[in-house]
From TrEMBL:
Residues 315-374 form the SH3 domain. Keywords: SH3 domain. It comes from Takifugu rubripes (Japanese pufferfish). One of its GO terms (cellular component) is glutamatergic synapse. Belongs to the endophilin family. One of its GO terms (biological process) is blood vessel lumenization. This is SH3-domain GRB2-like 3b.
Amino acid sequence: MASVRVRRTSIDPRALLCVSRPPVKMSVSGMKKQLHKANQLLNEKLMGAEGTKLEEDFLKMQRSTAVIHSLLTELLPKTTEFLQPNPADRTKLNLLNTMSRIRGQGKSVGYPQTEGILGDCMLQYGHALGAASEFGGALLGMGETLHQVAQARDALGVNVKCTFIDPLQDLHDTELKEIKYQLKKVNSQRLDFDYKKRRSGKIPAGELQQAWRKFVTSKELAERSMFVLLQNDVDHLRILAALVTALLDFHRSAHHILLGLHGNMQARLTAASNKPERRFRPGKIRIRSEPNGRCVGFFHQPPVTVSSADSKLVLDQPCCRATYSFHPNQEGELDFSEGDIIVLTKQVDVNWYEGTLGSQSGLFPVCYVDVLVPLPLP
């Protein structure tokens, strides 16, 4: 068998050192430039050295841009707090949605709206009372309606996020971020130029001119970006108008839903008021008084007498009952006695109603009557 000769090659340890050495992030000249900028900054802050002054228009745009940046930094989280006011629920929602994304579940958990929580409570006890009960049926109807309002509020959250939060977040993450970077670069180039200008006798003229050109170029870029941002009022106003439109749509929808609930409640109130009165019939109570347990007799509880005046009323329109007698001293006011049923025409203000009693009509104080069927909403 032929023998195989293995040739050994020697490896220079310096080559291994070069391979394992981490890459240098900054050159020596770059490090020197940073030291020169730091030196210039210290001279301006501590020694009172005067740097290159920027124009007042540039500084004014810079201040306005800083205001917009602060506005978005505060406005975006406050808008989320407006849509989701409970911080504990908000934190829980973010945690659950994060876990859903980690697990690959596409469906996210919705924020528990206050109307939905109140509706759940009413539905629970409405089912417990049963639909046969007028109060139970009203609870069921109101609980379902509040769930519809909660769904409208969910739609408001989606709408505001798409038309208001996302555009502002994009503005914050793109244009403002780029302007912030450009302004930082302007300040860096200015420090470099001012340092070289201060040492003009020891630095070549070409190097000083190059630093000036870089400073002017970076300043023009930042100035142009700030100008575009501040002049773009149309888009900014369009975003604000979208928020107003989303709020208006929600309140219109909620008003329509609650108006239907109000009509339903009025009908239930009228039907309950016109139901025939049910009289209480006491049961027999067995009395055992002898030691042998023999029944001596039965005791009948006396019947409860209830005035039937209210049961004869047909409350099919807004009306009230007089709790006190009112004898006016001025023309245009309605005279009535305690117990009279007055038909309500309208509410003049928080203190006075207008109504009719028989063939008479006029004004009377709110505190003198007890409303049986309220006036419809305007």
